[in-house]
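Hi, here's the filled form for the chain we discussed.

Project: internal
Contact: R.S.
Residues: 551
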Amino acid sequence: MATPISWAQEIITCDLCDNSTQQFCNRCQVSLCGDCVSKHVDKHLSLEHHIVPFKNRKIQPVFPECEFHPNQRCEAYCHKCDVPVCIKCVITSHNGHSVRDMPNIFNDKKKEIQQETQEIETSVIPNYKKKNEERESDITLSMEKYIELEKETEKHRTIWHQEVDSIFNKLRSLIISMRDNHLAVLKSHQSKLRNMIPEILQTLQQNKEIMKSNKVSEVTNHKSKLTEYKNNLSDTDVLIPSLKSKTVQGREFSIELGECKATLTQLSLSSLKEKVSYFSTRELLDRARVIATIPTRVKPLHRVASVGTDKAWVSGLDRIIKCFDIYGSVHENVVLSQQIHPNDISVTIQGELVYSNSENRTVNIVRHGRTEILIKTPQEWTPEGLNCTNSGKILVTLYNGQQRKISCYQEQIVKQEIFSDENGKAIFANGKLMPFVAENNNGDICVSDINAKTVVVVDNTGKVRFRYNGRPARRKKGFAPRKIVTDSMSQIIVADYSNECLHILDQDGQFLNCVDRCGIPKPCGLSVDREGRLWVGLLEKGELKVIQYMR
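And the returned structure, exactly as it came back:
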């Protein structure tokens, strides 16, 4: 039995309703049913229309309506003013300007988009996918080499005397730090490549849709992203250091990892550790460079706390704490329940946001989108500056209106309080401005004592090691310290509000360099990320500057 053949014919519907098309406006390129012809004409009374039966339609570009002359369409383009113009514009306000026919611009622009689309499809996307696979291979290979490096280090450990085990502990920590930094760079690049692929595919689809469009404005408004996509393909090269050792029995032991070298010479045990020297694996750049400028619209911008390698929390004088990535996108908002801004913010080693609240005397932590009270400070003591240390402690500066002190909390228990020296004299100046605090790798506590216009550094027993007043930097204005941080090389970095720069000191208080000429007026917030870059918050401009200051 023969199967009946069903014939299907595509029904073209009206652009204004769901009825079948009967008429067509050649001037507006709109399909219309009989009922909608009058609606279309009434909606665009100022324009001329050419209504014809649908079968007599003419496909042609749709020129934009002139906003200055009714009943006119812009069929030309003024190069001097960079705007579409109609014939009346040409003989009036744009008289004498260089004008070109819009159809020519329309066709030329479509050709450019066609070329770009072809290159994205045939070159850019395959290259992104290839680079993503290469990064995956690099990460696996790097992990294997770092495992071998750790094993090799452990073999040499047995050659050294038990008294110098601390040297190898430092070397292992350095390897882990270098590995983490290395992998963070590779993973960050891989993540950027992987995240860009859907965007590029979307751009490709948009370009194809524009290629089908007859609307001039859609074509002329197209902005190419091809150069940006190509630039993102540049490789990130990080060298894996090699381990070298030398042993002269009874006289000298030495071991090197990259630019870090430890040498042990046989002396009395009391002076043994003093003869062991370490050298930084990273060096300060002669001139720091800005690698990103992020407009946050948080004005004034007071606090900054970086998260991982490419994000940072910021806060101002409202009760919203925002998380921005290095590309300027907002990832998360935390709204304080109280009608008050946080005094300070910090981030734990697990990446959790911590902030101090003066209204209810608490230090709070944000976990999985929920806020929990972490610390309740004693009666009459207000929490101010914060620092979540790498060892899991939380340093809090407290103020009771007459005196300031630093409390070191370990799992909500006060382990140490620092407020006076061995003579009973207050270490920190009294005043209205809150100090900031940071812990260094050697256990020192570094304080930006704003009221005294000084950086104060105490050791882990609370004894003052040194004070820094900014004079070695030889700036024009007086030293006005604000936020203070320390980096992986035990360097101390403090923002100088008045001189628009950052002072860099070594762990013993010796001035090393100034980060200036980076366009950082009134730096207030400061943080250092896991790649060793500085995130600087500009108070009045409401901007974040990400600065590379070490190689």
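Let me know if anything looks off before we file it.
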